[in-house]
Design goal:
With 260 residues, the chain is an alpha+beta fold. 25% of the residues lie in helices and 28% in strands. The strands form 3 sheets. The chain has a 7-stranded mixed β-barrel with strand order 1-2-8-11-10-9-7. α3 (187-200) runs parallel beside α5. The two termini are 45 Å apart.
């Protein structure tokens, strides 16, 4: 696997040469748009509706939207002057109990591995020490002229470096103004819901996290490429729910039958 970045992990005065590898590969299916008569890929024209004409690239500038009548034009040179210099170091700011970090802050996952023999010992020392302390390292890196907060923690003999969303990008749950009045909850419903949760509780099975839609699309593509007919199975109609109590009882009965 090809590293996406190489540099150093700095913890205090200790510097460890490291490489960053993607931990997740997204395999989303995408389509191209073609002309149905001739099969050619279509192209989009850059059109100005006010002037009623197609524009060349040198007639187009970048602008920030203020309101429907006002934009601020920003040049490439102005943006270039603001770019952060690419750094070759992930600087650890402090260590933290991972449980303090809400799941909503997690973005993409990467593996962080030592590079060369020189960094292996220090890498292993901090891996073990962080594992024993139950701590993760919070660091900051500038990679390809973008800044990333990174949470680094021991994971199966490697460091897992998860990029985090910036504080200002996260919509906090309390802003959504939805509250649960626990005093108004019916204890009968709670008891049934608890029983249902117990009946459906299993160990986590990551191999069952399958993109069934993507699989169906690929089967459709493969069948059509072979000139075969592809038939979709009709989805089962779900039973109509009359009340929460009936739904809970029916769900519990179904779960218990499945477990029997």
């Amino acid at each position: 696997m090809k590293a996406t970045w190489s540099g150093f992990l700095r913890i205090g005065l200790v510097t460890i040469p490291v490489k960053l590898y993607p931990a997740v590969v997204k395999r989303a299916i995408s389509f191209h748009l073609i002309h149905k008569d001739c099969g050619s890929r279509i192209k989009y024209l850059k059109f100005c509706p006010r002037c009623n004409k197609t524009l060349d690239d040198d007639e187009i500038v970048r602008a920030y939207f203020l309101d429907k009548d006002h934009y601020v034009v920003i040049t490439d040179e102005e943006l270039a002057s603001l770019k952060l210099a690419t750094s070759d170091t992930i600087e650890v700011k402090y260590f933290v109990d991972e449980r303090e970090i809400a799941p909503i802050y997690y973005a993409d996952a990467h593996y962080l591995l030592p590079e060369g023999e020189g960094g292996k010992e220090a890498f292993a020392i901090f891996y073990k020490a962080m594992q024993e302390k139950g701590k993760a390292a919070l660091g900051q890196a500038i990679i390809r002229q973008r800044e990333y907060p990174l949470l680094i923690k021991p994971y199966e003999g490697k460091f897992l470096a998860s990029s985090l969303h910036f504080y200002q990008d996260v919509i906090r749950a309390e802003d959504l103004k939805v509250e649960i009045d626990e005093e108004k909850l019916d204890p009968r419903y709670l008891q049934l819901a608890g029983q249902l949760i117990d009946s459906l509780t299993e160990h986590f099975k990551p191999e069952e996290l399958v993109d069934h839609y993507a699989e169906a699309v690929l089967k459709l593509v493969e069948a059509k490429a072979r000139g075969e007919k592809f038939e979709l199975k009709a989805a089962e109609e779900k039973a109509k729910v009359i009340s929460l109590m009936e739904a809970l009882k029916a769900s519990l009965e179904k779960a218990e039958k499945k477990a029997a």
